[in-house]
Amino acid sequence: MRIIVFGATGNTGKRVLVQGLKMGHEMTAFVRNSEKLYDQLGEHSAKHVKVIVDDIMDPVSVGEALAHQDAAIIAAGHAGQGEEFVRIVDNIISQCEFQPSFSGRVWIMGGAGLLDIPYTDLIGNNLPGFPPEYRNHNRNFERLQQTELDWSIMCPGTMIDSREHPDPVHLNVTTETLPVPIPETIKEYSEADIAGHLFSRLQELNVAYDDVAKCMLDHLELGGAFKRKRVGLAYQSNITVR
Length: 242
What we know:
By secondary structure, the chain is an alpha/beta fold. It has helices spanning 11-22, 34-46, 59-66, 83-98, 135-145, 191-200, 209-217, and strands spanning 2-6, 26-31, 49-53, 71-74, 105-109, 150-155, 159-160, 171-175, 207-208, 229-235. The protein contains seven helices and ten strands. The longest helix has 16 residues, at 83-98. The model has no long low-confidence stretch (mean pLDDT 93). Residues 7-165 form the NAD(P)-binding domain.
């Protein structure tokens, strides 16, 4: 497939590029700093990546970059950027909609706070104590819901460089809900207590960047199981939930 990665020098984007190349995809990197990209990829891999150096906020440049691509992975920006982050995602999504030769398969990055908490009608990002900037992911999710594109939003917890688990390890993948077991009694908690429960279990949501990248690359088909879904990832544990 022909895949374009926005934010290709970031922790997630660079891993998507490398794994995509190994899987035989035609990879395009949209970056603002080509030297950083080449330093990260190394000479051999860099020869096999099409590199576009341009302004991610320029609609024309983004639209032209999306032409004839089969999928776009948006790994640019972060929630702490506030309005800029929301504008980055909105611009790319808008150009995906407008570009007639783009097939419409899109992945964007969210966070575990976007996922439904079982037995409640809540998501973490709206709970007391969660950083307010995380709600920028909510806004990007709302933008996706307005489009007819075939999208998915990756919602990991804290991403780490390498798994601190013995191999083999089972990766639990969920749609819409948190990927860790939640006690049914949580429905009786106050919102503050629900937040406290989730904070106490944040480490269970740690997941390696490489596993996040692989999950996105493994699900690029149009109309697949993750179409228009939030996707959660966690390593399966034997922890007893009380």
